[in-house]
């Protein structure tokens, strides 16, 4: 027999306090009825003695201390799942918003996930092709990896995310099933409409699951959206054997929602006002990626975050960098040069790249070409700094060649249109063509056998 609790003892922003509660559990879902007709759901985020603090997902509007009835469900938030979710659009808590009706569930899963034994993880191998040279060639995304994109306000991370969704694949010769779970948190309506329209027009809709939390939606919903998306991804990967790419945008909105709720709870703030448990909240999300022994599928994450004031030392990118395996950094100065995507390859890094490329995965020369392009582009920065002091005309012939290489690298390798879906062969061939600008003796990061095999041939293609 379920017990209903009449009234509340306190309302504070998105939080309410219920007194006289027995057997309440952390993360338990509660059902709240307002004035006998409006129903909302919430979750218990704190419990002590006979009190329970509840986050209300739909917000506390219309609620007062004496017009509510609250019932504990006895279980955490669960998501209804079946293969029907592919091609569907849901709100931030997993309710359909595309007008196609409810999902007939094959199973229900706790959105908080289950702890994964590290011994059951397999080391990530094989790459995911995005069709973007600066990513595929130099910061390769590996199946089972978590590789964030560090962006800034006004930079085209939304366009880049949409391009990754429409172009990503396991390669031309793969027959394994590949799907994408896309979760947007705190986005404006026009941005959400842009994603929907882009996926429909590209034909990617059939293998994409969308979870949209709009800026006008309650803040509390923002905290549950990434967990809902990852629960769907884990179901498709570990129950259905699919390879799943999860794109989460924007993790800064998630962190700011966490800060707002923490402030409402009266917790002591840490760096920049964020709660001290921001790191553990991030890790519970990011660590839900990987490959599990005995399962055919995999979960790969590309979280996107906007760095406040382009500050890479801000707590959000700083803590994200501790947990994830690299980062892709968007640079404002490149964007101002009309370069798309404005990826600065020097601070960008994929720590798992070395084990998912090369012979048998991409092409035997991939690692050498990537190393040499990094080295040469780093030298370009030195040549540009010297030119700004003594003038370009006073540079040596070699430094002038490096300047020419740097310009060509940004215009031909990094720059590509939103419709340009390059194969890994195209990317590497462009790299060889650019390296041919420099004298052969400058290419000291490439094995001599690979240099002899590819240098002249690929430079002429």
UniProtKB/TrEMBL annotation:
SUPFAM superfamilies, sorted: P-loop containing nucleoside triphosphate hydrolases
A biological process (GO) annotation for this entry? proton motive force-driven plasma membrane ATP synthesis
In alphabetical order, the GO MF annotations are: ATP binding; proton-transporting ATP synthase activity, rotational mechanism; proton-transporting ATPase activity, rotational mechanism
Give start and end of each ATPase F1/V1/A1 complex alpha/beta subunit nucleotide-binding domain: 131-350
Cross-referenced CDD domains: ATP-synt_V_A-type_beta_C, ATP-synt_V_A-type_beta_N, V_A-ATPase_B
Task: Kindly state which keywords UniProt assigns to this record, in alphabetical order.
Answer: ATP synthesis, Hydrogen ion transport, Ion transport, Transport
Task: Enumerate the spans annotated as ATPase F1/V1/A1 complex alpha/beta subunit N-terminal domain.
Answer: 9-64
Its annotated function is as follows: Produces ATP from ADP in the presence of a proton gradient across the membrane. The V-type beta chain is a regulatory subunit.
Q: Which residues form the ATP synthase A/B type C-terminal domain?
A: 355-455
Query: What is the official name of this protein in its record?
Result: V-type ATP synthase beta chain
**UniProt source species:** Lachnoclostridium phytofermentans (strain ATCC 700394 / DSM 18823 / ISDg)
Q: Which InterPro entries match?
A: ATP-synt_VA_C, ATPase_a/bsu_AS, ATPase_F1/V1/A1_a/bsu_N, ATPase_F1/V1/A1_a/bsu_nucl-bd, P-loop_NTPase, V-ATPase_su_B/beta
- One Pfam family assigned to this protein is ATP-synt_ab_N
List, alphabetically, the PANTHER family matched: V-TYPE PROTON ATPASE SUBUNIT B
Q: What family is this protein classified in?
A: Belongs to the ATPase alpha/beta chains family.
**Gene3D superfamilies in the record, alphabetically?**
3.40.50.12240
């Amino acid at each position: 027999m379920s017990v209903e609790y009449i009234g509340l003892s306190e309302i504070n922003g998105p939080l309410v306090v219920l007194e006289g509660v027995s057997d309440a559990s952390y993360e338990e879902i509660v059902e709240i009825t307002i004035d006998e007709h409006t129903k909302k759901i919430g979750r218990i985020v704190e419990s002590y003695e006979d009190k329970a603090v509840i986050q209300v997902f739909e917000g506390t509007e219309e609620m007062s201390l004496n017009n509510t009835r609250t019932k504990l469900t006895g279980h955490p938030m669960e998501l209804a799942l079946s293969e029907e979710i592919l091609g569907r659009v849901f709100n931030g808590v997993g309710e359909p918003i595309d007008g196609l009706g409810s999902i007939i569930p094959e199973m229900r899963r706790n959105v908080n996930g289950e702890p994964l034994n590290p011994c059951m993880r397999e080391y990530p191998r094989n790459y995911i092709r995005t069709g973007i040279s600066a990513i595929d060639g130099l910061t390769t995304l590996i199946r089972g990896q978590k590789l964030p994109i560090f962006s800034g306000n006004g930079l085209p991370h939304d366009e880049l995310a949409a391009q990754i969704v429409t172009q990503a694949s396991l390669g031309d010769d793969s027959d394994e099933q590949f799907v994408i779970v896309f979760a947007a948190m705190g986005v404006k309506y026009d941005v959400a409409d842009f994603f929907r329209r882009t996926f429909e027009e590209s034909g990617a809709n059939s293998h994409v699951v969308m979870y949209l939390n709009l800026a006008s939606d309650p803040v509390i919903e923002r905290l549950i959206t990434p967990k809902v998306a990852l629960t769907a991804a884990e179901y498709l990967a570990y129950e259905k054997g699919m390879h799943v790419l999860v794109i989460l945008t924007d993790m800064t909105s998630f962190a700011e929602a966490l800060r707002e709720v923490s402030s409402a709870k009266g917790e002591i703030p840490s760096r920049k006002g964020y709660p001290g448990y921001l790191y553990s909240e991030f890790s519970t999300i990011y660590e839900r990626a990987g490959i599990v022994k005995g399962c055919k599928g995999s979960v790969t994450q590309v979280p996107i975050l906007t760095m406040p004031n382009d500050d890479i030392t801000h707590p959000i990118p700083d803590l994200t960098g501790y947990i994830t395996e690299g980062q892709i950094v968007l640079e404002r100065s490149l964007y101002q040069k009309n370069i798309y995507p404005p990826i600065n390859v020097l601070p960008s890094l994929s720590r798992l790249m070395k084990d998912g490329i090369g012979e048998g995965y991409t092409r035997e020369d991939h690692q050498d070409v990537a190393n040499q392009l990094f080295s040469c582009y780093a030298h370009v920065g030195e040549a540009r700094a010297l030119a700004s002091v003594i003038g370009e005309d006073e540079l040596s012939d070699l430094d002038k060649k490096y300047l020419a290489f740097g310009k060509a690298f940004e215009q031909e390798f990094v720059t590509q249109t939103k419709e340009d879906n390059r194969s890994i062969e195209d990317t590497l061939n462009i790299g060889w063509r650019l390296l041919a600008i420099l004298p052969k003796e400058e290419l000291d990061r490439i094995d001599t056998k690979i240099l002899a095999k590819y240098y002249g041939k690929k430079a002429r293609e």
